[in-house]
Amino acid sequence: MILLDQSVQQLKGVGEKFASYLNELQIYTIHDLIFYFPFRYDEFEVKPLTELVHNETATLEGKVATQPSLAYYGKKKSRLSFTMQVGEFAVKVVMFNRAFAKKNLDLDDTVTVTGKWDMHRLQLTATHFKKGEAKSDNPIQPVYSVNENVKMASLKKVMRQAMVDYGDYIEEVLPKSYQDMYKLPGRTRAVWNMHFPESRILLKHARRRFTYEEFLVFQLRMQLLRKRYKEATDGNELFYDNNLLTDFVQSLPFSLTDAQKRSLAEILKDMKEPHRMNRLLQGDVGSGKTVVAAISMYGAVTAGKQAALMVPTEILAEQHAASLQDFFGDRLTIRLLTGSVKGKKRKEIMEEMEEGTIDILIGTHALIQEDVKFFDLGFVVIDEQHRFGVEQRRVLREKGIKPDVLFMTATPIPRTLAITAFGDMDVSSIDQMPSGRKEIETYWVKGKMTDRVLNFIKKEIDQGGQAYVICPLIEESDKLDIQNAVDLYEQLRTVYEPDVTVGLMHGRLPNEEKEDIMSQFAENNMQILVSTTVVEVGVDVPNASVMVIYDADRFGLSQLHQLRGRVGRGARQSYCILLADPKGETGKERMRIMTETTDGFRLSEEDLKIRGPGDFFGKKQSGLPEFKVADMVHDYRALETARKDAAEIIDNGWLDNRVEFKPLKKIMRKDFENMGEILD
């Protein structure tokens, strides 16, 4: 390993200047170079037309059947086309900016062309061509990410030199038992086949090997962090009164779904553990997270503790307080603490909290102010946890003596992403909706039908409903032709007022003003609310039965689903109308999926496939790794396997007490900052 940590300048043909160019690609050592894997592969293997995949790269061999024709357009741009005979098929070949090829191609010449295959038009758009038959010792060519100073040919040459001189020093990190169990090639052989694959099968096994290795190393890190967190955070064993909980659940006017029961059982099990709970409860809007949290908080109270629920906005805090009061009646003492609670009332609540006469305190970030003191806080629920900063969450946790913490989110996260991004947390999912809930009808309409949509809104309002109208930007942008909220607000006022009251809300308004507007809408003093996506989280407006989203193709599926969840909160049949004229296939596909399902978990999986993990959260998420080979969407089975294996290794202490796991420990130390102190 020490030899591989030498500078790339140790390699023959790599001088100081070329080494500096490699440094620009983050290649400093021989190890960096050897593990600088290709990002894709060009295949020059000739296959029958029947085996080719539409829109993928293919190589064809055949005879020129028509005289090539050349057309010029734009400045120095050209299009060369001809027909070639491939077996009994006539295939059209198109080449852009290859005017010189016309002189080299004659009727009946045998040619080999590679490019994008269009199965429907029997056409290949060629990027490579050569006269003669396809003779290549290496039909699969690696393609690396390079820059203007490092050419592909130079990188391949120095890569081969590195593998010849130092390939034998690559250290195996996977125990032999795991290689045998999953039929994985050894590390040295796998690295060779990543760079110089002799066949698709060998490349496939090399990729499979590194996919598993990357997932295993990452999951070992997550499982170890989780174990260390539990060991370092001794909690309180909360021995709740099971009889009181059972009576309460039976008193509810509805039955819990199987998913609610499963999540509740996981939370209650955590509460009995001597370690502090660190659990994420996720579920769709309307799936019943609040009642699961309520039962859990009641459990903490029966164990002699106080509970707290922190939410992002005052109006949401008020709604939670009202619903918990309905649930519990006179069983518990519940109080509400927000920024609006001042003077004598606030002082009373503070005194009651310190004396321990309040069982559950609900509030906004007002809960974490310094003068808020609890008698004995044992259970904390943080709703829409992504809306609070790490520091805010930490302050609330420290209000009690090691309270259990339950985070809640209404953004369903695909399992593959949850076990990667939140691998150091336990995750409970309520992936089932209560029966009897009316499904929101979703329609995709083109912009030219806007008048019909406006008429539909008026009809719903006349029958007692209310409507949200969402658009992506606050004010006009020269770059994007998007209907903006301010203009739309003015237009709708012209259409509907004075019969209907129209309001406007966006992110640049002060918080107090946003809360005031939302309250007016919730109380039906305003029938149409024009807004940007700030309404995405939280408030119940039972009368709201229409959600219209302008330029819907500009949003991700998860965000569209969250917006749709703002309606359908009451007994009325509700509708979501997506106004969009998407140009690309991706936008059209998003609209189609939205009209087909209201299952947030299915939509989040589709969103992950379309946008990729890096984009899914909307911003770069710390803790979400960049894998070189593994893809958490397509390789989810390997991710599940690695997670199971990592849990077994950590639970049994094998990293510390079995010699075959030492190389894995070493690579963890190398790959992750701060891992040394956790491993020691």
Automatic annotation (TrEMBL):
GO BP of this protein: DNA recombination; DNA repair
Alphabetical list of InterPro entries matching this protein: ATP-dep_DNA_helicase_RecG, DEAD/DEAH_box_helicase_dom, Helicase_ATP-bd, Helicase_C-like, NA-bd_OB-fold, P-loop_NTPase, RecG/Mfd, RecG_dom3_C
EC number(s) from the headed UniProt entry: 5.6.2.4
Pfam families for this protein: DEAD, Helicase_C, RecG_dom3_C, RecG_wedge
Keywords recorded for this protein, A-Z: ATP-binding, DNA damage, DNA recombination, DNA repair, DNA-binding, Helicase, Hydrolase, Isomerase, Nucleotide-binding
Domain Helicase C-terminal: 449-609
Catalysis: reaction(s): ATP + H2O = ADP + phosphate + H(+); Couples ATP hydrolysis with the unwinding of duplex DNA by translocating in the 3'-5' direction
Lineage top rank: taxon: Bacteria
One GO molecular-function entry: ATP binding
Signal peptide limits: none
Positions of the Helicase ATP-binding domain: 270-430
Protein family membership: Belongs to the helicase family. RecG subfamily.
Its biological purpose: Plays a critical role in recombination and DNA repair. Helps process Holliday junction intermediates to mature products by catalyzing branch migration. Has replication fork regression activity, unwinds stalled or blocked replication forks to make a HJ that can be resolved. Has a DNA unwinding activity characteristic of a DNA helicase with 3'-5' polarity.
Protein name: ATP-dependent DNA helicase RecG
